[in-house]
Amino acid sequence: MSDPVLRAFFLGRALAQAVGEQIEATVTNGLSELAKLDAEQRERLRQFSQQVMEKAARDVEGAASSSGSSTTTSPFGSSNGDLQVTIDELRAEIARLRTELQLYRSR
């Protein structure tokens, strides 16, 4: 291997492979961190939504107990978080409250 051109070729090839491996490792780590941040953000959003729903449920229960209302249904749907069920139950609760408000105003 005394030919300088041949040595330069192998040196260049080894350098290109090493740089390629470094770039691959950097991109892989970057994408991994990005996915991790995305998952953490989704979990924070889920926890925040759950806290808001629990607070609203406590407020509804507190309002119902202070007004003497006898609602026995859960105001926010099943525990699995079915959004459509929650929306339907909230709409029904709003309709019931509007009816009670109209009856109160007509007295």
TrEMBL record:
Residues 65-81 have a biased composition (Low complexity). GO terms for biological process: thylakoid membrane organization. Residues 56-82 are annotated as: Disordered. InterPro entries: PG18-like (IPR040003). It holds the Pfam family DUF6825. This is Thylakoid lumen protein. It comes from Merismopedia glauca CCAP 1448/3. The lineage of its organism: Bacteria, Bacillati, Cyanobacteriota, Cyanophyceae, Synechococcales.
